[in-house]
Amino acid sequence: MPTEPTLPVAPQGDCSLCPRLKAFREANRRSYPDFHNAPVSAFGAPDARVLIVGLAPGLKGANRTGRPFTGDYAGDLLYRTLHKYGLSRGHYGADPDDGLHLVDCRITNAVKCVPPDNRPSGEEIGTCLRFLKAEIEALSRLRVILSLGAIAHGAVLAAMGCKRSAFKFAHGAEHQLPGGLVMVDSYHCSRYNTNTGRLTAEMFETAIASVKSRLTR
Known about the structure:
Layout: H1 19-31, E1 43-44, E2 50-54, H2 62-65, H3 73-84, E3 88-89, E4 101-102, E5 105-109, H4 122-138, E6 144-148, H5 150-159, E7 174-176, E8 182-186, H6 191-195, H7 201-214
Parallel strand pairs: 2-5, 2-6, 6-8
Antiparallel strand pairs: 1-5, 3-4, 7-8
Helix pairs in contact: 3-7, 4-5
């Protein structure tokens, strides 16, 4: 019986590619010894047709739980919306052991380690591109990429060797990428964006609906 194909994982737990992120991770291990406090691997099946790309693990979200968008407000909105559009099944309990499964969907981040103040540097984003690039290339059935925020948008373009100037970020924008891929843009589903009104639940649902519709075309 054939085994399920594997994909490149995130950097190892003691990755030293980014000195600032390594130092922050080590400080968090002292402050929060029960947290994951390591690079966060992608979540979802390796044969998914949808890849959702966020910015980086949240300090008390994915950095705590070890699963992308799990344990903070961004995950509450993301997983609720994915469920509404049939891209997940089971109950999201904000815990990696909640039994939640993604349907035809995979979630990752442009930067795999939590950055101070949720702000990775340009150099750190560039260093982590190797993992995003490898993951995109390994998803043989990939059709749609959902970029959550301008940094994720830029990271996807860089990973695919595309000029950012040719693909302007805008919420709800759809871009035709090389190889037949489509990238859909959304503002990041962070509490800050929803609290300020930059992103509403309805706006986010529209972006997810656009992604889902691309799977039936």
